[in-house]
Design a protein that fits this description.
single chain, 8-stranded parallel beta barrel, TIM Barrel, alpha/beta, 8 strands
Length: 304
């Protein structure tokens, strides 16, 4: 079966949304557990203003102190040149840029239009040219916006082209507020892979309306092999009221493992890490397999 790459985003996308700050040593321990669990890539943190995202105010300390696994790509979200310089000083393997396909969402998220954000990327890319750092370009609201509604496919394709012109090695299509449908995912991904076969394509789904794993299956059917996921299903977006977080890493790995896809990720170690995360956050996590157990976990019938 096909090799699927699991890319963990809980340390950034998940923890930034929590009410309480996770102490740095515990955050580092969580990341080390995830590294040991065989994820292929991990978004460790975000080099944004500590005032904007106080939960990630320890970005440098975390990135410098984690135990790196040579089989894992360690990436960080950066918003601008200042963030790029901070990331490079911590020896990240990759930086992740982000813009929304929806201009309205982009204005709400960063206070700039989509075009203005891309203009700002140019000085960042120029700085990174000789730094031997991979560049991934993410496109938020690729499958729909809570303010503008449907996003035309041509809009997404044009933004991918902009990233390619800037020198990006890969692109991520993000379903920021969980509006994607399986049919839509398949149709858009077929077009993207056909036109941009030179770029690594990642899908980033939120499970806001319960379609996250179904969307993964259609992404695979279209030819995508890289998927972001968040341990325990933590995360979310402030512009999707009542939403659950990203698709859950251990639920995703459980599904793919029992469909016989080839994975580097270790399900048992991910479940251990999920239980550790649950203790850190002191609240219920959206993930299901950690609660119900694997489908191979049998029970003594006499107890029922």
């Amino acid at each position: 079966m096909e090799r699927i790459f699991i890319q963990e985003v809980a340390p950034r996308d998940g923890l930034q949304n929590e009410d309480a700050f996770i102490p740095t040593p515990k955050k580092i321990e969580l990341i080390n557990q995830l590294s040991n669990a065989g994820v292929d890539k991990m978004e460790v943190t975000s080099f944004v203003s500590p005032k904007a995202v106080p939960n990630l105010r320890d970005a440098e300390e975390v990135m410098k102190m984690i135990k790196r696994n040579t089989d894992v790509t360690y990436t960080a979200l950066i918003p601008n040149l200042k963030g790029a310089k901070r990331a490079v000083s911590c020896n990240v393997d990759e930086v992740n840029l982000l813009v929304s396909a929806s201009n309205t969402h982009n204005l709400k998220n960063v206070g700039r239009s989509t075009e203005e954000t891309f203009e700002g990327f140019r000085e960042t890319i120029s700085f990174l040219e000789d730094k031997r750092v991979l560049i991934n370009g993410s496109i938020g609201t690729s499958f729909g916006c809570p303010f503008e509604g449907s996003i035309p496919e041509r809009r997404v394709l044009s933004l991918i082209e902009k990233y390619r012109e800037l020198g990006a090695n890969g692109i991520t299509l993000a379903d920021t507020t969980g509006m994607a449908t399986p049919k839509q995912v398949y149709e858009l991904c077929k077009k993207v892979i056909s036109r941009f076969h030179d770029l690594d394509v990642t899908l980033h789904f939120h499970n806001t309306r319960g379609m996250g794993l179904a969307n993964v299956i259609e992404g695979i059917r279209a030819g995508v092999t890289r998927f972001d996921a968040s341990l325990g299903g933590v995360g979310g977006c402030p512009f999707a009221p009542g939403a659950t977080g990203n698709i859950c890493t251990e639920d995703l790995v459980h599904m793919l493992q029992f469909m016989d896809y080839e994975l580097n990720a270790n399900l048992d170690k991910l479940l251990d890490a999920s239980h550790y995360l649950g203790k850190l956050l002191s609240h219920d996590l959206p993930g299901q397999v950690a609660k119900a157990g694997k489908i191979t976990d049998l029970h003594d019938a006499s107890n029922f």
